[in-house]
Please model this.
Amino acid sequence: MKKYLFLSLAGLLMAALATGQSQYKAGDIASDFSLKNIEGKMISMSQYSDADGFIVSFWCNTCPVVKKYDQRLQDLHAKYAPKGYPVIAINPNDPAVSPGDSWEKMKETAAAKGYVFEYLFDETQEVARKYGATNTPHIYILAWKDGKLVVEYVGAIDNNADDASAADKKYAEEALNSLIRGEKVAVAGTRAIGCTIKWKKG
Amino acid sequence: MKSLLAATISVIFGLAPLPAQKIEKIGVPELEKILASPENVLHVVNFWATWCPPCVTELPYFEKLSKEYEGKGVKFILISLDFPSQIDSRLIPFLEANKITADVRVMTNIDYNSWIEKVDASWQGNIPVTLLFNNANEIRYFHPEELEEAKLRELITKYLQ
Model:
């Protein structure tokens, strides 16, 4: 009976992971990771000695919505890395499903766009699963508190994917400004249309 | 009188050439109306976009089954999330090229956070997703990822009863 219960729980857990229902939300403690950047070096958040937090962005080379936000992510890094919140972009897509999202193509994208933030490859998709990311782009703003990475915001960069100048709710910037001022983040979670993460088959 | 005649003629001929495919643009109120439909049929509402490869892969299954289930208590609505700026340049040519005749509507409100949760509490905005419901029978199932043809058929069979 105990064994059966354990199996049922394991099954439920796997189902929850598979559908991304275990998503981080504001207030949760995020896990650090060790992922390969475009130079083949392993990168963790704990390696950033000066950071107060991070703009962890599930990203890729191919999604049209990501492309719409490309400049905006670079602008966020330019504005907020000096204030303690650098961008870390993570590509979780399986290249077997989405060939344009291979590590080699990541190098090309980073070079073509001139990324100055880290662009990491979540080859096993474990980080995306753990964070509960479902699509690209999908932004997680984290802040160090007492040696832990607290999730402060999950969702979209702003409320107009098509036209940056028409966005009148800049969720990510507002969350970051609040954190820098030492205030509570007012809007801690949003949802936005994006490309589904290309999970490994089977 | 002459001017009336001229006006009539211009109404008849002046509109031509009509686009071959007309597509209904919807906003949040129209979406809410679809979701609250009291009609006693199984609604199959698919959210997709031409820029989404898995959506494009599964679209023919919806087209095919919409023909198969015509008049059999199933109502298909394919809600495109293509950018409003690309309706004429991309969406309509795509529908014509792929001979999609199913009921396609395009969501023009791109303040996504204002309406995603209305579709399903668990939906984070990834596409494709498909919602099956019949409010008259309190049937509701949200499928959070792409579908194979057999799976779509299985779901329709299951929830049609």
About this structure: The longest strand of chain A covers residues 138-145. Residues 24-196 of chain A form a domain with the Glutaredoxin fold (CATH 3.40.30.10). Strands of chain A lie at 29-30, 35-36, 42-43, 53-58, 87-91, 118-121, 135-136, 138-145, 148-155, 194-196. The interface with chain B takes residues 19-21, 23, 64-65, 98, 134-135, 138, 155-156, 159-162, 169, 171, 190-197 of chain A (CB under 8 Å).
